[in-house]
Every structure is written in C-alpha cells, then in structure tokens.
Amino acid sequence: MIKEEHEVAMMGAPQGQAPVTTTVISIPRETAVPDHIVWSLFNTIFMNWCCLGFVAFAYSVKSRDRKMVGDITGAQSYASTAKCLNIWALVLGIFLTIGSVVLLVFAYLAAYQMSLEMMKNRGY
C-alpha cells in the first residue's frame, strides 16, 4: 500500500465543517381527469346505437381540450357527461345486440319449422 493510501485508510473519510443541506422541490400534482376517449372510441366504432358513442366521443374530446387549456372544472364536467353517455351506449348496445341475436334465432327457427311443414304437406 502506498503511504498516502495508508493515511487515508487510517483517517477515514474527510470530515467537513459545514452541515449537509438538502433541497426539496415541491411540484404541484396535476389533477388527473380521465377523459374516457378510448372507451368513447370503442363505443363509436362497435356500439353506436342511437349515435350515443359518437356523442360520448365528442364530449371526451371536449374534456381533453379543457384539460389542455387548464380548465379542470370544465374538463371534469365534460368527462362526467362522456362517462354517462358511454355507460348508456354500452348497456343499450349490449341489450340491443342480444335482442337482435335472439330475434334472428327465433326467425330462423320459425322459417325452418315452416319449411318442414311444407315438405310434410307435399309428401316428402
């Protein structure tokens, strides 16, 4: 070991006279306002019964615009409306899709039964 390294090892770390100070920077947390734009886009493309998905998408875009401007209250208002419209579009879309499938099944069953009766009457 070199003499200087030996002295540093014996003395330990250098001792400073000034106390260690820390600096804390407080960054205000941005209020998170969900704009529901992905949900609105999904409802616009797949569940657009009565155009509720499109209207929800418009309110989501308005909410995002208000958030970018800094109007948090307006953004929350538009986001709340978009969420309500998305819920209605989804529920209505699910019910109407299930109802359409059930109606199609009954129509096909009635047509099949009618064709069987016609074949029976003709003697097949």
Distinctive features:
mainly alpha, single chain, 124 residues
Structure notes:
The protein is an all-alpha fold and 124 residues long. The protein has a domain at 36-118. It is 71% helix and 0% strand. The protein is built from four helices and no strands. It has helices spanning 3-11, 37-46, 52-69, 72-122. It is rod-shaped, with a radius of gyration of 34 Å. 19% of the residues are buried. The model has no long low-confidence stretch (mean pLDDT 84).
Secondary structure blueprint with pairings:
Layout lengths: L2 H9 L25 H10 L5 H18 L2 H51 L2
Helix pairs in contact: 2-3, 2-4, 3-4
* Sheet of most strands: none
Overall average residue pLDDT? 84
Number of helices: 4
What ranges have pLDDT less than 50 throughout 5 or more consecutive residues?
none
- N-to-C series of helices and strands: HHHH
Q: What would you call the shape?
A: rod-shaped
Radius of gyration: 34 Å
Tell how many strands the DSSP assignment holds.
0
The fraction of residues assigned to DSSP E strands is under 5%
Helix content: over 70%
**Global structural class:** mainly alpha
Transmembrane segments: 37-59, 87-111
GO biological process, one term: response to type II interferon
Protein name: Interferon-induced transmembrane protein 1-like
Subcellular location: Membrane
